């Protein structure tokens, strides 16, 4: 039985063609990048090429790219790692996050004075709430670019543009000046230029990279962001922290000079090569043409799901990342878990939400944050598409869902 895989927010399996490319390149660059001999230098070339590709795919300098083990490590470094580099006791610092951040961001920050911003019923963080939550003691603001469970795109670019304006009186988009000047009148007068310059703005971009052009969500006001390679079809076990020049963090791993003394340990060369190859694809026009096709399928899938009984959408049609749909089962005798089992038996792979939290079998905190009941949160089901998903996959999945909703459970 051929399987339909619709859990790409958990991991997007690499294609056979991609694995062949990685293997071929690894055969040519198989040494330790830190070794001084020819094999090492050859491996170092591959490392540099991959770093350059990832940097270009984000529009940043190559020195801004730090290769790490994945999105979790990148988020930890971009938040707690940054805070530990300040000359302030960690429990004396104030951080601001949304109440739907990934656990890789929220859990390490529990020891701080922490403000959690509420979201609206679509999971959207207010730009105004984010900025007005900043105090003279705030050292970190961290908002995800798009939510991993429901796909809501957050206003991180607007937040970043405002922070950059308050730091340097500079705007990439001059049309925002009047709006920002008017909004600035609502700020506490004690929020000086230095307060905004000392504030670190981190963005979890794990579910945005490769799904939206970086120009739509990334800007100079973002000080760091987390990327994960396996969410876009590269190998697991590698990611990157984009850390803008002038920003610093305290490393978690010591014992080597790799990554310019910022992340000790021999680099995961197979993973990094894989990451670089995918980054090169993201740079090509065909990539986002395929993303648009995926978005069209998402909209078709969303519309047809919204017509079904005993089902309530948690995702929004608009302002959502191009591949993610989430709904809850509302029927009295059925659960999201039962639906997932039936789908799996039909050869369709989906999930209940974040892969990092699903083992706990608890109601989704993201769905709860939308104002929905614990029962709805426990019966949430997520589908996440890829560039390889086609209409036949969607139609078969819709039919399987319809069959279950119309079964004897009701």
From TrEMBL:
<dbReference type="InterPro" id="IPR016454">
    <property type="entry name" value="Cysteine_dSase"/>
</dbReference>
<keyword id="KW-0411">Iron-sulfur</keyword>
<keyword id="KW-0408">Iron</keyword>
<dbReference type="InterPro" id="IPR000192">
    <property type="entry name" value="Aminotrans_V_dom"/>
</dbReference>
<protein>
    <submittedName>
        <fullName>Cysteine desulfurase</fullName>
    </submittedName>
</protein>
<dbReference type="GO" id="GO:0046872">
    <property type="term" value="F:metal ion binding"/>
</dbReference>
<dbReference type="InterPro" id="IPR015421">
    <property type="entry name" value="PyrdxlP-dep_Trfase_major"/>
</dbReference>
<dbReference type="InterPro" id="IPR015424">
    <property type="entry name" value="PyrdxlP-dep_Trfase"/>
</dbReference>
<dbReference type="GO" id="GO:0031071">
    <property type="term" value="F:cysteine desulfurase activity"/>
</dbReference>
<comment type="similarity">
    <text>Belongs to the class-V pyridoxal-phosphate-dependent aminotransferase family. NifS/IscS subfamily.</text>
</comment>
<feature type="domain" description="Aminotransferase class V">
    <location>
        <begin position="198"/>
        <end position="394"/>
    </location>
</feature>
<dbReference type="Pfam" id="PF00266">
    <property type="entry name" value="Aminotran_5"/>
</dbReference>
<dbReference type="GO" id="GO:0051536">
    <property type="term" value="F:iron-sulfur cluster binding"/>
</dbReference>
<feature type="domain" description="Aminotransferase class V">
    <location>
        <begin position="4"/>
        <end position="168"/>
    </location>
</feature>
<dbReference type="InterPro" id="IPR015422">
    <property type="entry name" value="PyrdxlP-dep_Trfase_small"/>
</dbReference>
<keyword id="KW-0663">Pyridoxal phosphate</keyword>
<keyword id="KW-0479">Metal-binding</keyword>
<keyword id="KW-0808">Transferase</keyword>
